[in-house]
Amino acid sequence: MNLYLPIAEMSVNVLVLFSMGAGVGFLSGMFGVGGGFLMTPLLIFYNIPPAVAVATEANQIVASSFSGALVHLRKGTLDIKLGVVLLIGGIAGSAIGVVLFSSLREAGQLDLIISILYVVFLGTIGSLMLIESLNALRKSRNPDAAPAALPTQQTWIAKLPFKVRFHKSQLYLSVIPVLVLGMLVGILASIMGVGGGFIMVPAMIYILRVPTNVVIGTSLFQIMFVTMFTTIAQSATNQTVDIVLALILMVGGVIGAQFGARAGQKLRGEQLRALLGLIVLAVCIGLGWDLVTVPSELFSLGEGGGH
Amino acid sequence: MLRILLIFFVFILPPFAAAQTKPSVQIGLSNETVGITSSFDGTEIVVFGSIENGEKERLKNGKYDLVISLEGPTDFTTVRRKEHKFGIWVNGLSEQFSDVPSSYTMAATRPVDQISDAENLKILEVGLDNLNLVPVGKKLTAEQTKVFRDSLVRLKISKGLYLVDIGGIEFLTPTLFKATLTVPANVPIGRHLAHAYLFDGGKFIASQFTTLEVRKKGFEQQAYDLAHNHGLIYGILAVLIAMFTGWFASFIFKKD
After folding, report:
1. What does pTM read for this prediction?
2. What are the pLDDT digits (tens) for A277-300?
3. How far apart are CA A135 and CA A129, in angstroms?
4. Domains of chain B
């Protein structure tokens, strides 16, 4: 069943894209991650132009993060004040990202930067996740060993000015690291087509010391607004959001996520994190391999432009 | 445009003064427009035509040669070459070409280099080797430019946008012919030109062209127009659709 995408200007197989959406949705439901970091490379492998893949993926993430944020809002596991500060940084970052995106595309280096960013981030996060979860698994088999002490608040962060009290998170914290984190994630959202949860969640836990129960909800809250802004900004400047493609992925994604969430409940936290770490590393190695091996085609075309 | 004028002055005008009943070629298309709807997956265009005022003996023996081409709108195209730098493959040297047909489909009675001499083919821009792709950058050597030009054509072929079908012209009678040209699923939007070139014994004697409009229809057109003319509204709409889908999902799958 083929469908012509109005913005990507190509004919695609609906069932293939729907399955991709459902498959990634399954993993995101299982692990509680956005899945953008898997979806965008998959779309690019499927020959969707990278510019369209990245911008459309932002649109899809609006749907999944909105759905998730609603649940956390109902359960009260969302620090809106912290989310808003993250968001201010996020909007600024997204705006910077969209401009960077346009200029990189003109210079012909967009695909390379996307690949390098993926390799660096996925490699780091995947390795950390795998090491951490393997340690946790070893410890759980060895109940006598003392649990690792939670590291104390980093002193350089405690010394920063402009402190604000975040009641829900029970934190008294400078807004600077929060804004910077939000901004970094915003830049990544517009260049890589990811929500950025895979960076934000560990950073909130390990650097900002946000309590785990509000981390996911707050991160979804921020991701939702940043991807909304990114979708609108990409539409207005680069015209690269394909609404038909986004809709197919959204529907596949939400259905897959439901089954994934159920499957996830049957696995233990450390096992889930180890598995996710492996998947993240596999994507990283796949993309990295393409960067270092001799490409089968050295030449590529860029249409349009002119002087 | 320049090319059409050139053809007119070099080939068509002088002989006209000499003889009135020179052989000529007429063509028509099975469709004058190709509408891209959501189910569009490529199509075929049949070019019908006839050779007029041809010499009977030569017609019967198939002595006339024909080339039929369908050319998409031209644009700038940049060709980039990957280079090995710091252990990874990055885009390095590039060259931009102007007047690059976004698509080019050709059918011919024989390989073009057997139909006419190189100079004629170059002027007419018949065949992939003779398309007048103009390098804009001017910073490459002639040898490099050739490599980049060849790569452009090779990539266009691999995308299905450039296609050559030797022997793709079928004669129904000695004078009537037809050629079926493939229009790929990724056909560029815009005005396409269908050309027929008639040759006799290596000499170019007549040509004719007609246009084919390729455009999006219905929803495809509306979505595209909205995205390009009102990007902001399109973006807001895309966000609203996403929010509705997200809300609907959490509503349907609510566990409590």
Report:
1. 0.77
2. 898 888 888 888 888 888 888 888
3. 10
4. 2-216 (2.60.40.2550), 217-256 (no CATH)
pLDDT in tens, A138-185: 887 765 555 454 555 566 777 777 787 887 777 788 888 889 999 998
- Taking contacts as CB-CB distances below 8 angstroms, the residues of chain A near B75 are 303-304, 306
A62 Cβ under 8 Å from any chain B Cβ = yes
Q: What is the ipTM of this complex?
A: 0.82
Of A71, A112, A239, the CB nearest to B91: A112
Of A62, A63, A291, the CB nearest to B88: A291
SS3 track for B112-131 = HHHHCCHHHHHHHCCCHHHC
With contact defined as beta carbons under 8 Å apart, do A163 and A173 qualify? yes
- Element containing residue B13 per DSSP (H, E): helix B13-18
Q: Model confidence over B219-252: pLDDT tens digits?
A: 888 999 899 999 999 999 999 999 999 888 878 8
Contacts of B77 in chain A (CB under 8 A): 301-304
Q: Which residues contact A36 (CB under 8 A, 6 or more apart)?
A: A57, A58, A60, A61, A192, A193, A194, A195, A196
A10, A231, A300 ranked by CB distance to B186: nearest: A10
